[in-house]
Amino acid sequence: GIKRKPITVLKKLRKAKRDTAYGEKPEAVKTHLRNMVIVPEMIGSVVGVYNGKQYINVEIKPEMIGHYLAEFSITYKPIKHGRAGMGGKGAMFVPLS
């Protein structure tokens, strides 16, 4: 069955949905439970998933069912490699103007 912590999150999600006017997004429910599996009941909710530094707001959609919350909250900053500097073999062909 479902353990106690995920049930608590589900209860908070239900309450957030209940307290929201029709046609509006519910308030985000913050959680550290990255290992929680997304269930059909969560569709339409907004979950703030902790990534180790901040909470990433994730709006639950039908195609997310069966996935973990962690899959939608990346824990690292994707690297962007810069251009090569003066060191290295490729620098031999760069004109020094």
CATH class: Alpha Beta
Q: Catalogue the unreliable spans.
A: none
- The Rg value, from CA coordinates, equals 21 Å
Give me the CATH fold name: 30s Ribosomal Protein S19, Chain A
Fraction of residues in helix: 10-25%
Rounded average pLDDT: 88
CATH architecture grouping: 2-Layer Sandwich
Biggest sheet strand order reads: 1-2-3
| Number of strand elements | 3
Number of helices: 1
Strand content: 5-15%
Overall body shape: elongated
What class, by secondary structure content? alpha+beta
Domain count = 1
Order of helices and strands: HEEE
Q: How far apart, in Å, are the first and last alpha carbons?
A: 70 Å
The H-level CATH homologous superfamily, spelled out, is Ribosomal protein S19/S15
Largest sheet, strands/sense/barrel: 3 strands, mixed
Structure, explained:
It is a single chain. By secondary structure, the chain is α+β, with helices and mostly antiparallel strands. It has a single domain (about 5-70), classed as Ribosomal protein S19/S15 (30s Ribosomal Protein S19, Chain A, 2-Layer Sandwich). The chain has 1 helix and 3 strands, in the order αβββ. The protein is elongated and about 65 Å long.
